[in-house]
Design goal:
This protein has about 450 residues and is of the alpha+beta class. The protein contains ten helices and 26 strands. The radius of gyration is 44 Å and the shape is flat.
Amino acid sequence: MKKRMTILALLLAGTVTLGSYGMVQAGQEKQEVPVAGVTQTLAQVIKEAGGVQAQTADAVEELQSNEAMARMMEPEMVAEEAWETAEVAENELPQTASEFADIAVAQVNHYVNVRQEPDTESKILGKLYDKSAATVLETTEDGWYRITSGNVNGYVKAEYVVVGDEELAKSVGTRLATVTTTTLFVRTEPTTEAKVLTMLPDGDDVVVTDESTEGWAKVSTADGDGYVALDYVTLSTEYIHAESKAEEEARLAREEAERQAAARAAEEARKAREAEAARAAAEQEAARKAAEKQETKKSGSGSSTGSSSGSSAGSSAGSSSGSSAGSSSGSSAGQSAQTASSNGQAVVDYARQFLGNPYVYGGNSLTNGTDCSGFVKGVYAAFGINLPRTSAEQRSVGYAVSLSEIQPGDIVCYSGHVGIYAGNNTLIHASNEKTGITLTSPVTYRSVLAVRRIF
């Protein structure tokens, strides 16, 4: 211990400087040597200094020996340090956040208001309905989230939404695979050697039912479940979004107009039934009078002129009145009914003439061959409506209605498929190569993603 203290004192008394080369200074004498030789040179200087320094030479030699041993152990120590560094680096790698980490799902009886500021007295911008979703942009200190959902950007009370619950987010959303290549093969098994089940065009999307197979996603199509390679699709999750005040007002106005149209149609139908009943009664009365006339002739009594006049007047009045009332009421009722169904029945009637025509992938001819979205586009084109080409794009046209409110002419959207509601729980659509353009019932033969009304 004393030897080491002596060396320390010596080092403090005579400055020792190390650089890219070791510079040893003892008194006024300097000697420049490589760093690796610094310890050896220091020992020599100390011995030459004599006195106490000479007594410490052995200690310096001991340090030199320890340095040599350290150099022998250096590769092992370096390897160990590298391993420890790698472990630290691995542990410190940034963790990729789940895509659902910032998804907020409303958990309310009906809806929660989205406000302009984080204050219950602030202006209401829209409504986030139960099981609708939003993306959280910011968390305030007083229990609010700043969110964006559809066309609504504002604040909701944190107590009414659940954030970051992956299972809940998945349960209220629809997982989609959107095609990013010109034509995508959907295969029966997750391998490029498997049979092709069907094909999907660029931009179309299908519902994903399973993602457990590496490099593949299991999807639902009009021809059944199959697999698509992840290299050729983009995965996303579609949610029901908030409704803005403007969107709500437009929806309520549209629903009110439809209710009024339905009420008018019902009233016209009632009048038509009454007119039909009156016409039938008049015909029965004319028939009764005609029978009486025949009886009178047989008995040889009565006035032929009066009888003829009565019969003619009764028949003419009954026939004219009944026919006119029936025709007028029927025409009026028909117009109101057409208004109530937004010309949807006319769309269906037009579409029916193409039943039995072939299905052709990518086709656009209603007579020579078309696929599902081409069929819908072609039918509506006859009414001056220009719809987008793919089933995915057609899922956003017009406005949404619930399945319980579906009417003839509404577009029914499925995973990778689309058709037109024909009434009576029936779909008219370009189904596949085997059946062509056909009718299918019930309309819920597959899970319905959306119902869209154009008119």
